[in-house]
Write a structure and sequence with these properties.
mainly beta; 5-stranded antiparallel beta sheet
Length: 335
């Protein structure tokens, strides 16, 4: 009898908890970019109305757009930009020219306006709000500001690496040393909850799930979890860096065989993709020869990746390369 009573109380408790923390969240109809492109690629690429916006390495990383059907290229602005978000005819971005704040401009580069002097690390647009993380000031945390520059407010006070708005909530990746894990908080800063208490990175959202990477004490891999912290599942085990989530695949960089050459460049990393249904893993043949491979992004059938090199002054510079996925030779990886 006592066992039956205990089980009944436990079931009721679980029902109450699941009722309080629901995963029934409706995403907005307006986003400026995908969370994968913002988090894994620092928002360097973005798709809008049949065009891909990207930094052109042939013109000092200035912002260009390319028509996905005709492949016609056109310069948008001389600015070097990060966290590109596009919605309702406006481009929102972080200026990387002099690291001097948040801007917006029309699709042709006209009507450029400064929204704020704040210098975010990463930024994502949902509806009329820009959500961003701040690593550079003393008041580190997650913030939001309206696209007209008003109503600046803090969402979560902890130092945060990624912040992803989904409907009325914001999901924040907080380092483990600072009450870390995945936090879920209302967009106005109320009702904060930790839904995953472990060291995660590259947090992303796709189709009702949060995806993240995990690495601690010899355990590495890609995981997915529901928006209330339930169903936490490892979908790939291995050493990985960066990822991009699509309906069919999770693209990622396999770093299990990385090594440093005589010129102190890293090689051996592979661009891979995991079929979410079959769990089959393939890699792009020849990608292991790409030096200093980092970051991934995807727009339609184009995949972007970055490389970084030291210049003559010893400073690292990053370059974005774009390839057509349909023209790559994918090889099945043998475990």
């Amino acid at each position: 009898m006592y066992k039956l009573l205990f089980v009944s109380v436990l079931l009721v408790s679980n029902m109450l908890i699941s009722g309080i923390i629901s995963d029934d969240i409706t995403p907005s109809d307006i986003y400026g970019n995908t969370s994968s492109n913002i988090i894994s690629m620092n928002g360097r690429i973005c798709e809008y109305e049949g065009n891909m916006y990207y930094p052109n390495i042939e013109d000092d990383n200035k912002l260009y757009k390319i028509n996905l059907e005709t492949e016609k290229k056109e310069k948008v602005t001389d600015d070097v930009v990060g966290s590109i978000n596009i919605a309702e005819g406006w481009i929102y971005y972080i200026s990387r020219n002099n690291n001097d704040g948040i801007y917006k401009m029309k699709l042709d580069g006209s009507e450029k306006k400064k929204i704020s002097d704040i210098m975010p690390s990463k930024m994502m647009l949902q509806d009329e709000w820009l959500y961003f993380t701040d690593w550079y000031s003393e008041d580190r945390g997650t913030y939001r500001i309206k696209v007209d520059g008003t109503n600046f407010s803090r969402v979560l006070g902890y130092e945060s690496k990624n912040a992803i708005p989904v409907g009325e909530y914001v999901f924040v990746n907080v380092p483990i040393y600072d009450d870390g894990g995945i936090w879920r908080v209302k967009s106005d800063g109320s009702n904060p909850n930790v839904i995953i208490k472990k060291s995660v990175y590259n947090l992303q959202y796709h189709d009702g799930w949060l995806y993240y990477q995990y690495g601690y004490k010899g355990h590495y891999g890609i995981y997915k979890v529901k928006l209330n912290g339930m169903g936490d599942t490892c979908i790939y085990e291995g050493m990985v860096d960066e990822m991009v989530v699509t309906n069919e695949y999770v693209y990622f960089i396999d770093t299990s065989n990385i090594e440093k050459d005589q010129n102190k460049n890293y090689k051996g990393a592979k661009i891979c993709r995991l079929n979410q249904e079959t769990k089959k893993v393939e890699f792009i043949d020849g990608s292991e020869e790409i030096l200093n491979l980092s970051r991934l992004g995807i727009v339609d059938h184009y995949l972007a990746y970055s490389q970084y090199f030291k210049d003559e002054n010893g400073k690292y510079k990053s370059f974005t390369n774009i390839i057509d996925i349909n023209k790559q030779n994918f090889m099945e990886r043998q475990n």
